[in-house]
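Team,

Forwarding the record for the chain on the shared tracking sheet. I've put the sequence and predicted structure together so nobody has to dig through attachments.
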Amino acid sequence: MSDYVDPLIQPMDLAAVLRLTKDLRASARLLAPKEARFLVDEYYSRQEDRIRSSNQSKALEKANEPNLLVTWLSEQNEVLEKQIASVLDRYSLSQPVGEWMRSITGIGPVIAAGILAHIDIEQCPTAGHLWSFAGLVSTITWQKETKRPWNAKLKTLCWKLGESFVKVSNLEHDVYGKIYAARKVLENQRNIKGDYITTAAEQLIKRKYSKDTDAYLWYTGALAPNAIAVLAVTAAAARPAMLKRLVAEAAKKGTGQPMLPPAHIHARAKRYAVKLFLSHLHEVWYTLHFGVAPAPPYAIAVLKHAHYIPPPNFQK
């Protein structure tokens, strides 16, 4: 009989992992940005693996099939995921701007650490530089066979941040989730008024949506403005049938209007909240780093397009 034991099915030496992580936590404050970026990537990779293996385990269990190995993999990924998060927790709190970010509802150690590790405030004299670096300036596009004009990983982090703001919008101490919700109301009002007819046409050319998609119906004007309110109160399971009915009604009455679909409105409102956060982040970070406040944004100082909103939880 062979003495060979498959290393994949040996129990992980969790004590060794915990000892290693204890050493890492102790040195977390000294992490270089490159190391922090690696750990953030590794955290999300482990999270995806854990979710995938957990789903596989549940499917195997439901089918009465062996699932011991898959379950074991899920558990080990969860252990490593939590240990990496604990290191990033120390790292994100090791800098004053990281502490400020962590004071914001919806921002945890991983996102805060990722933002810290990807941004060099000395290379960002204005909030606009942050927006551009994060890929949040709609007028900046990526041309084929050219260098990407933004940081892809930071852009992904900002997308995750926006989703987090949406999830916490009903919490008492939330700030940016409520800004998202208010902006979504305004975006829908503008959509109904027809302010985005030109934008809808541009999207059809840019994205080339298939005619059998819901997005195509919205962008081409197959729906009337009242569809927004009707679908908002329609249960998810009933929406496909309701959508067909609304298309038929709009065609019969001739009330169709090119509009942005709900997902597009969601993205616009979320991007608005994230850009405001980045503006506040820039003000806080710049002030802490240089000892003086940055110049007011051009849109406020010169164009008078907006009222100044001070960063929450920050005293100059």
